[in-house]
Amino acid sequence: MRNRYIGVTLLAALSFTAGQHIYSREMADDHDEVLQNEINQLKEELVAIKDTIDFQSSLTKTLENMKKQETVIFDKVSLNEGNAYDKTSGVFTAPSDGIYSFSWTILTKAGKYFVSEIVLNGQKVAYNNSDGRGHLGWPLSTSHANIKMKKGDKVWIRTKDTTGHYAHGDDWCCFSGIKL
Predict the structure, then answer these.
(1) Sign of the CA dihedral running 87, 88, 93, 95
(2) What is the structure's pLDDT at 79?
(3) What's the CA dihedral at 39, 41, 45, 47 to 10 degrees?
(4) How far apart are CA 104 and CA 145, in angstroms?
(5) What is the per-residue pLDDT across 22-71, written as a single tens digit (0 to 9) for each?
(6) Per-residue pLDDT reduced to its tens digit, 69-80
């Protein structure tokens, strides 16, 4: 009887140990899966950090008597990391969701003015008014906007409701942006 008791006890202990081993193995597999998911998330975040979106463009030609809400095309691109700015259309297209920071500078001359706005998908976000009426010299005005964008959203600079009378070329006017 004693041997039978020892045998049953050993069998129970072995079963318990085997059960623990299987349970531990399942826990390890779950833990490995959790770790792999965390590694994958970190890789995605690293790619997002590495995928810099940044552009700097300027106006080479003087613009005069532009029409109402006409796009200002900054045609010279000195930096275009991520290739999100199109110098032929003057439009920046967000390659990914995020907050983008934009600034633009307009230089006009005495007696002239140039009122512009930055737009997101055609909707006004902020204005810039470079006004040389009643002044001597070359008035310069810079505006800035932080804009939350979705992938595919478009931003550009255009004249406001009034026409753009004079924006000096020769790289004095510029438009730039960066993903924060």
Answers:
(1) negative
(2) 97
(3) 70
(4) 9
(5) 556 666 677 788 878 887 777 676 665 567 999 999 999 999 999 999 99
(6) 999 999 999 999
- Distance from the first to the final alpha carbon of the chain: 78
Give me the percent of the chain exceeding a pLDDT of 90.
67
pLDDT tens digits along 101-148: 999 999 999 999 999 999 999 999 999 999 999 988 999 999 999 999
Identify whether the C-beta of residue 136 lies closer than 8 Å to the C-beta of residue 83.
Answer: no
Q: Where are the beta strands (DSSP E) in the chain?
A: 54-58, 63-66, 76-81, 85-86, 91-93, 98-107, 113-120, 123-131, 140-149, 154-159, 164-167, 174-179
Can you say whether the dihedral through the CA atoms of 87, 93, 98, 100 is positive or negative?
Answer: positive
Q: Tokens representing 105?
A: 């500078």
CA distance 173 to 107: 6
The token pair that represents 177 in the structure block: 């942006």
